[in-house]
Automatic annotation (TrEMBL):
Chain segments carrying region Disordered: 301-350
Localization annotation: Cytoplasm
Gene (UniProt): rsgA
Protein name: Small ribosomal subunit biogenesis GTPase RsgA
Domain EngC GTPase: 85-233
EC number(s) from the headed UniProt entry: 3.6.1.-
Function, in words: One of several proteins that assist in the late maturation steps of the functional core of the 30S ribosomal subunit. Helps release RbfA from mature subunits. May play a role in the assembly of ribosomal proteins into the subunit. Circularly permuted GTPase that catalyzes slow GTP hydrolysis, GTPase activity is stimulated by the 30S ribosomal subunit.
Biased composition (Basic and acidic residues): 306-321
Principal localisation: cytoplasm
Leading EC class: hydrolase
Cofactor(s) it depends on: Zn(2+)
Organism of origin: Cyanobium gracile UHCC 0281
Entry note: cofactor: Binds 1 zinc ion per subunit.
Entries under SUPFAM superfamilies matching the protein: Nucleic acid-binding proteins, P-loop containing nucleoside triphosphate hydrolases
Length: 350
């Protein structure tokens, strides 16, 4: 039984237990790992322990390799899904084929990754299934979105050396993406000793099968950890429509160079918009924005900035103009509903 709490990092969550790698040598040797419970007071305080968290462990039973997490250190950041704390970079993996690449689905993953504030990279797996020209076209397109893009293949080995170099940088790198894109296969190719479970895509639906059941950190180099995560197909969008633009690097870069006239511009044909409609993800941004606004519904947006008189909003120590709602272009769904209402209204003439 140890008197002083021991520092470590959570590398996996299994049911109600945490796998914790202790810092430095211990009674278990240089690479001590304990199966730990969480103290009740930690649960009652509302603190959720996630993979990647720095914790302190007490009540250690060295023979049984058990302990209890008694403290949680402050996080630098948190990737919401998969839930990983203290992330250094996010690698979004999507397949070029089997299953095919869906730009909208990829965008939703990128929006989630951008929320960490850390570097985001796109990896295009199964590059051997498309012609080289098509692979290059996808790389150029995604680089136009503002992302470093790497095409890889576990069959030919293309791109694996460059990916290994990126993942061996100190910190925690998270591999995330839809099911069946080959995240675990990539890790097996980079570190064969891991021998992670993999499976082929569904033969009839051509969709990925869930083979990874939980998030776990694996060491690739000294100080470098990589998280393999379960695949999922529909990442959630942020709840605040005003924050959506910041998750589109190409939009953010243009707005920094030439801001829109109004602070609450939706970048969907609004008067004074600096973006226009010619950028690649204009339609995708519009679909995401409509969904976010629909989820927000009629909630009061007072927390996004206090509304001042005269069509101004205070943000920090300055006032910004707001677009008059009467000047905003109505959405296509609103115009369609109005037209249907006119066509279905009964004739009132005698």
């Amino acid at each position: 039984m140890g008197a002083e709490p021991l520092p470590g990092r959570v590398v996996a969550l299994q049911a109600n237990y945490c796998l914790v790698d202790l810092d430095g040598p211990s009674a278990l040797g240089p690479d001590g790992r304990l199966l730990c419970t969480r103290r009740t007071r930690l649960d009652k305080s509302g603190l959720q322990v996630c993979v990647g968290d720095r914790v302190t462990v007490a009540s250690v039973d060295w023979r049984a390799r058990r302990g209890a997490v008694v403290g949680l250190e402050p996080r630098h950041n948190l990737l919401q899904r998969p839930a990983v704390a203290n992330v250094s970079r996010v690698v979004v993996v999507v397949a070029l084929a089997e299953p095919g690449l869906d730009p909208l689905q990829l965008t939703r993953f990128l929006i989630t990754a951008e929320a960490t504030g850390q570097p985001v990279q796109v990896v295009l797996s199964k590059a051997d299934l498309l012609p080289a020209a098509a692979v290059e076209a996808w790389c150029r397109r995604l680089e136009g979105w503002g992302y470093a893009t790497l095409a890889v293949s576990t069959c030919t080995g293309a791109g694996l050396a460059a990916l290994r170099s990126d993942l061996e940088q100190p910190g925690i790198a998270v591999l995330c993406g839809p099911s069946g894109v080959g995240k675990s296969s990539l890790l097996n190719a980079l570190a064969p000793a891991l021998d992670l479970r993999v499976a082929a895509v569904s033969g009839r639906l051509r969709r990925g099968r869930h083979t990874t059941r939980h998030v776990e950190l694996f060491p690739l180099a000294p100080g470098a950890l990589v998280a393999d995560s379960p695949g999922f197909n529909t990442p959630a969008l942020p709840g605040d429509p005003q924050t959506l633009a910041a998750a589109f690097p190409e939009l953010l870069a243009r707005l920094r160079a030439s801001p829109c006239r109004f602070a609450n511009c939706r970048h969907q044909g609004d008067p004074g918009c600096a973006m226009g409609g010619t950028w690649d993800r204009h339609g995708i941004y519009g679909r995401c924005l409509e969904e976010v606004e629909a989820l927000a519904g009629a909630r009061c947006r007072g927390g996004q900035g206090r509304q001042e008189e005269g069509g101004m909003r205070r943000r920090g120590d300055r006032l910004e103009p707001l677009l008059d709602p009467q000047l905003r272009r109505s959405s296509r769904s609103t115009r369609r509903q109005a037209l249907e209402g006119e066509l279905s209204s009964p004739d009132r003439e005698d």
